[in-house]
Amino acid sequence: MKLDGILADIDGVLKIKDERREEVITLSREIIRKAGSAVFSTHKKDEGGRAASLEAARRALERALEICRSQPEFLFVGPLPQAFQEFAEASILSALVEGGEVPSPKELKVPVESYVTGLADAVSEMRRYALDSLRRDDFGEAERALTIMDDTYSVLRKLDYPRAVIPNLRSKVDAIRRVLE
């Protein structure tokens, strides 16, 4: 029967897709774990740990993007959007703390939605950085952190899109506002 042959072909295609999905899940977990380590290292002023964690996260992200060339639906479903956001957060926080140029979504190779929510999370992390600066009696650095938070809040609040376009952005921006107040 011809149907048996058709279903055998479909089974082969779906098996490959499932294997790729499993790999993207594993890579997403690695990205999230390494991005979290980078944020932790940033707060602990462990530059070597931060750089190593960001590089490991970047390598995992690039492998995931390679898989997505043949399975683009994985870019928008499953754990990869969260991994993009965490990677963006860690990368942006690193740049903010170092006083460097904030990388763009294109440079990070993440979708703009994940970038924006990652930016909001990075700004929230600046609160901890400001408090750590105060604990060290580094008032100038604490003031710089608060200025970054305030300036970024002013820009983020202008992105007024529904949750369907940028999930959770409003709540993240509201959280930044509460911290600033």
Give the proportion of residues in helices.
over 70%
Counted by DSSP, the helix tally is: 7
Strand content: under 5%
How would you spell out the order of helices and strands?
HHHHHHH
The value of Rg in angstroms is: 19 Å
Explain this structure.
With about 180 residues, this protein is mostly helical. Helix content is about 80%, strand content about 0%. The protein contains seven helices and no strands. The protein has helices spanning about 1-45, 45-70, 80-100, 105-110, 110-135, 140-155, 170-180. Helix 1 (about 1-45) runs antiparallel to helix 2 (about 45-70), helix 1 (about 1-45) runs parallel beside helix 3 and helix 5 (about 110-135) packs parallel to helix 7. The longest helix is centred in the first third of the chain and has 42 residues, at about 1-45.
Give a brief rundown of this model:
This protein is an all-alpha fold. The chain has helices at residues 2-43, 47-68, 80-98, 105-108, 112-135, 139-156, 169-180.
List keywords for this structure.
181 residues, 0% strand, 78% helix, elongated, mainly alpha, single chain
Summarize the helices and strands and which ones pair or pack.
Layout: H1 2-43, H2 47-68, H3 80-98, H4 105-108, H5 112-135, H6 139-156, H7 169-180
